[in-house]
NAD(P)H-dependent oxidoreductase
Amino acid sequence: MKNILAFAGSNSSSSINQRLVEFVASKIKEHHTKVINLVNYSMPMYSEDEEKKGFPGMAMGLKQEISEADALLISVNEHNGSWGAFFKNIIDWLSRLDRNFLENKKILLMSTSPGKRGGLSSLEYAKNVLPRFGGEIIESFSFPSFYDNFSSESNMITDETLLLGLNEVLSTFAHQIK
């Protein structure tokens, strides 16, 4: 049994990416999955001046959480075609602590949005950036039109095709991290 750390790159109190992470994490039965909310890892906006003051304890704590995981489940939100400044700031701090903070981490990368592209631009951006820090993207999944395809009442994906696609991605991911 492997340890999976799951989180969304959003700081919204009503984050649909966090909801997607929680839903997907609940579907992983053959491994231990720990879901965290990055809002609980408060860090100042990265700058050289801030770094000279020392690394935030929350950045060191998050780096430790990542290092203890065998794999990661990450859902990135999208702001203007890229991931949000909140997540970028976290990545900046982690990469300054250790350039290879994702070394040997297998990643299931996801995104969602209210729109038909499902945060695809942010997902593609993350697929290009995260391997620079040592991570290996095993699978990726873009979930379009979140509010049309996910029921908050039943906490379920309502579109059968999307559910089948997600189940296939999860199966491949679970197999790859054994």
